[in-house]
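Action item from last meeting closed. Structure (224 res):
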């Protein structure tokens, strides 16, 4: 579904170039459940940004569903992301003035291909699945860290994207809730062939992963 071919990324620090990724080759297919591990500064977040079309590589190509991605047209790129890719951020990125229900609805607001009734049905379904029904009218500052993480997960999954990219999605959850949420993701993965790419240090993910990769110094340290 999405392929990185010889993708490298460098950042300028004064007069020096710092390598974040070095000639990465990676393909994420429909139905994948991929866990990416590595120490801090290894390139995990940069790699997720590449998979999510949030950052342009310094060299190499990114191909989405057989078409090479170009980065000149911001609006077209945003539309591609809205239809194909969702994100679960470690920092949540919830809108503080919206209720829980409204935050979950956000990814569906620009989707003209989904009816209003279907949008509401999906929102209610994922609020219930993530155990947040009694908090649906609360705002983020009225929720615990774990509850906010579950809102972020519901928001990512409500659009039924083809790829969900998750940066430490279980970091703020207890082990029981982590397994419950991961089981929901596994169900979506199995039934809808939704692909998942996780960056994590949580060993619980190993119980669910179909593939696990180690990245260090911007390069993979084991085979694909």
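Sequence:
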């Amino acid at each position: 579904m999405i392929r990185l071919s010889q993708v490298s990324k460098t950042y300028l620090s004064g007069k020096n170039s710092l390598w974040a990724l070095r000639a990465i080759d990676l393909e994420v297919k429909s139905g994948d459940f991929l866990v990416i591990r590595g120490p801090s500064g290894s390139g995990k977040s940069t790699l997720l940004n590449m998979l999510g079309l949030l950052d342009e590589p310094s060299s190499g190509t990114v191909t989405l569903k057989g078409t090479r991605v170009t980065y000149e047209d911001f609006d077209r790129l945003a539309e591609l992301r809205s239809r194909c890719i969702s994100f679960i951020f470690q920092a949540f990125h919830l809108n503080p003035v919206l209720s829980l229900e409204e935050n979950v609805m956000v990814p569906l607001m620009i989707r003209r291909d989904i009816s209003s009734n279907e949008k509401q049905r999906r929102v209610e379904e994922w609020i219930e699945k993530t155990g947040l029904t009694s908090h649906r009218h609360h705002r983020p500052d009225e929720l615990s860290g774990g509850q906010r993480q579950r809102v972020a997960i519901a928001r990512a999954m409500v659009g039924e994207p083809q790829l969900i990219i998750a940066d430490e999605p279980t970091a703020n959850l207890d082990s029981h809730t982590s397994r419950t949420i991961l089981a929901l993701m596994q169900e979506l993965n199995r039934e809808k062939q939704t692909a998942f790419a996780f960056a994590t240090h949580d060993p619980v993910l190993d119980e669910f992963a179909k593939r696990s990769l180690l990245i260090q110094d911007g390069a993979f340290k084991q085979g694909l």
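Note appended to the action item: The chain has a mean pLDDT of 90.
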